[in-house]
Amino acid sequence: MTDKVQTYTSTGSKLIHHPIAVGKIIDYHMGMPISLQVAPTSRCNLKCVFCSNVNRSVHEDLSIGLIYTVLNSLRLIGLKTVEWTGGGDPTQYKHINECISEAAELGLQQGLITNGVAVKKKITRESLDNLTWMRVSMNCLDYVEDIELPEFNGTLGFSYVMNENSDRDIFNRINEYVRRYNPKYVRVVPNCQATHEEQEKNNKIYSEFVKTLGEPYFYQVKAFEKPDNCYWGYFKPFLLHDGWVYPCSSVVLNEDALRQFHSKYRWVKAEHLYEKYLSKMESFDPVNCSHCVFTAQNKQVETLLTPSGMERFV
Question: How far is residue 187's CA from residue 202's CA, in Å, rounded to a whole number?
């Protein structure tokens, strides 16, 4: 049986599948961009109650030239994939199809995260065929009566964030779309705008509930743990619509982030991201990262950076 958390989420142990990147960590203490997340616009066609970036400026767009520059420069040093995400919703970015085409020309695999409302209207057939996967937030059904998704040949997945509007009826509605579109999975996650205690409680309650839903549903535990050091941005940088790169997508969840990608979590300007890979890695200071969900990944990197001498005795 497929381990859906390891296969379809970003909190698994996928780094071990990238031996070149692992070798650079061990031999040179240097990072390598594996997967770039791009939130090209702050514009969105929904206003979800749980939105972690609700206090953003809602009219920010990355320039297409900047996106091309970042894609081309990182591809030269090992970039393999791109995830078009929010932010806002990437379907609201007027250059999204051109960007998908550019990434395809560079040989990059791509994924799209969207609320699904405008996919059929905004994303061209050529772009859809250039996507390896697409994840649709079924929270759209909290706000619209119906959505129509295009035919898709890649891996289709659904996601749903538990929130104050959630009830059993919403899963009956989601099941209608499961039958209609046959997604590989339906990921259910808690609202991460919660305290550690609330999150621990929610994880227990929701995980038991999701078990009753059966296939293709699974629950992704979201556990907060502040890391000692943060290197994850070197491997999965997050490029936001404000032109800055952040060390990960979860900084927006921190208690002092004020439900936005707060300026205190900025890592580097987009045009200077390439330069981060020309010298040894330095930890981003995680002192305020109360809601980190990538601590396990950072521990993997730390293990590679600080060998004990006993690694051969597996």
Answer: 15
In tens, the pLDDT along 203-261 reads 999 999 999 999 999 999 999 999 999 999 999 999 999 999 999 999 999 999 999 99
- Torsions phi, psi of 290, nearest 5? -70, -25
The distance between the two most distant Cα atoms of the chain, rounded to a whole number of Å, is: 59
Query: Which residues, in sequence order, are bridge partners of residue 107?
Result: none
CA-closest candidate to residue 106, choices 128, 82, 123 = 82
- Show the 3-state SS of 204-226: HHHHHHHHCCCCCEEECCCCCCC
pLDDT of residue 152: 98
Q: Distance between CA 85 and CA 113 in Å, rounded?
A: 5
The pairs formed by 205-210 with CB atoms below 8 angstroms and a separation of 24 or more are 206/162
- Cβ-count burial 203-230 (b if 16+ within 10 Å, e if not): beebeebbeebeebbbbbbbebeebebb
**pTM score, whole prediction:** 0.96
171 touches 211 (CB < 8 A) = no
Helix (H) or strand (E) run with residue 71 in it: helix 64-75
For the chain, helix (H) and strand (E) counts, in that order, are 9, 10
CATH number for domain 4-305, candidates 3.20.20.70, 1.10.1740.10, 3.30.750.24, 1.10.340.30: 3.20.20.70
Residue 136 dihedral angles phi and psi, to the nearest 5°: -110, 125
- Report the run of H or E that residue 21 belongs to, with start and end: helix 19-28
